[in-house]
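[Q] Does anyone have a clean structure-token version of this?
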Amino acid sequence: MAESAEGLGTIPEHERILQEIESTDTACVGPTLRSVYDDQPNAHKKFMEKLDACIRNHDKEIEKMCNFHHQGFVDAITELLKVRTDAEKLKVQVTDTNRRFQDAGKEVIVQTEDIIRCRIQQRNITTVVEKLQLCLPVLEMYSKLKEQMSAKRYYSALKTMEQLENVYFPRVSQYRFCQLMIENLPKLREDIKEISMSDLKDFLESIRKHSDKIGETAMKQAQQQKTFSVALQKQNNVKFGKNVCINHGRIPEERNEIVLKHALEEEDENEDEVLTVQDLVDFSPVYRCLHIHSVLGSEETFENYYRKQRKKQARLVLQPQSNMHETVDGYRRYFTQIVGFFVVEDHILHVTQGLVTRAYTDELWNMALSKIIAVLRAHSSYCPDPDLVLELKNLIVIFADTLQGYGFPVNRLFDLLFEIRDQYNETLLKKWASVFRDIFEEDNYSPIPVVNEEEYKIVTSKFPFQDPDLEKQSFPKKFPMSQSVPHIYIQVKEFIYASLKFSESLHRSSTEIDDMLRKSTNLLLTRTLSSCLLNLIRKPHIGLTELVQIIINTTHLEQACKYLEDFITNITNISQETVHTTRLYGLSTFKDARHAAEGEIYTKLNQKIDEFVQLADYDWTMSEPDGRASGYLMDLINFLRSIFQVFTHLPGKVAQTACMSACQHLSTSLMQMLLDSELKQISMGAVQQFNLDVIQCELFASSEPVPGFQGDTLQLAFIDLRQLLDLFMVWDWSTYLADYGQPASKYLRVNPNTALTLLEKMKDTSKKNNIFAQFRKNDRDKQKLIETVVKQLRSLVNGMSQHT
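[A] Here you go.
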């Protein structure tokens, strides 16, 4: 029952599989058949049985259908056999027709093939023309690129490369020649870059060599412009009555017009010759190189390279030659190279964008300015010649004005000029010290003689001398000063002119220039001239006559100081009433020199007196005097009389002081002669002879060798000698000892020590000659008196020492 049930269930499944096999494409039958084998073990056998049954059924149906259509098939075969004969006839006709058609179409085929071949060629030609039309612009542009490279038009070549890469090459990129061109372009760019850099290096070397010429041209143009401006300003000043006063007069208006005319003529002559930096230097390599690197995208690299190389050149330009300070050409070459360097940089700044910036040039200029100032400060200190320092100053001014015209700040340069001005003044002072020494060496130290009016006017034109009394005198006559006075006055004015030359063009006010001139003139007077005068006064060969003349000269130079102040005022156009105007210190300078000369007169006069005194040859043991004064003393008095005659031109107090000093020194020298420790013995005859000499001295003093003394003032110089000699001549010891210490004492000026010393010398003489042993009683009494006086004098001396 179970098997029967299983068999019943399997039969519908087999029918479904058969239906799928019949209705499904044979390619998909595999899975269906696999399901047969996946079923129960006997399913395959049963399926085969079912399949055989199905085949038998289909065979029966086919047989039925064939039996149904057999008669129609037979009829169709019969009809087909009837048509066979006609078909063969038709085949023969068709074959014949085909043969004839083939024979007739052979020529057409040949022509058709020719036409086809021509069409293909035409199509190919059209394609080639189209491709050539596409390639020809590329080839033409590449040929243009080669021509540009050959013509060294590198910037245009780079632009052509850009067009090739962006426009033309994309159209023909499939062709091999295009690939070759594309591969060659980077090499061409590198070649262009190297060539442009080589041109730039040549340009940098060229401007380094020509920077001095560029700077020289720029400085020349600046100087011409300044000359024209100064001439125009002078003409305007004349029109407004502000022309400069020089040498107590004014510059004529015609002279200013001539100056302006010459300046205009020079301007016209140079107008056609005005050269710019572009005329002197070809900047095209820089422009090309900049454009090339801009196109190549390496503009920043180029800018850094250019600035680095220019900084190196700047350091070379700023390095001076070791002997630059020896000549002005050395300074000029130094300045022109620097100006040329910065003129080029300024031009690059204004004609390019970004290659050189204002910040870069300012940084470079500040670096250069510090170096320039250090170099000039060092080298200017080696300049001993004021003319060279002045030329250096003029070069610095032109250098500063030139660069200022290009927008570079130059205030520090003008500050440096004030330092150099101090050095210039020092060199001027040294030069004028030599000038003053030469003047003093050449002077004869005697009043200037003039024999006619012309000579008189020549002297007064050189020196501001006014003396109505001298003017009234008839010719020949003499000026009180010597020849050195007008020469010194002229040289002081020349010094002021020289100092003024440095102060010009410093962009300072007239007040500042006036102050600078007065200060430098004060230095000349108080340091240089004063030192020269003091050295002159102290020279051993300068005698009393020369010293007297020097005092007279300094008096007149002192009086001329006000004219020097007026002179400075005139050339600077500054009123003397201006507040803070520096005064000249010449008054104190000449006063100090005069005082030194006066002191030297006193010293030399005393030395001369000592020389005469040294000639004294007394016989200190003589018994009787000669009856006349000593020869050396008479010569000394005659010398003093002649000297004091020369002193008449000196100020009264100077002559009186010199005369009093001489008399006092003579008195002191004579006193020292009596009290000399080497002198052991003095006789009464020698005292009497010495008294005759002192009388001559008193007579000289009473003769008033120098006017102005009141009463017996000059004779008081010999009062000590007179009272001492009177004491010994009269032998009035009782009065001396009795009145000693009294204000009204007759021998008030006699010192006990002095009297004791002289008395002992006389006592020793008496003992040596053994005179008193042979004398009478009076003489013995006198000897005892001497001893008594000696004792009393010693007691007075001891009392004085104890009191002291």
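[Q] Thanks! Anything notable?
[A] The radius of gyration is 68 Å.
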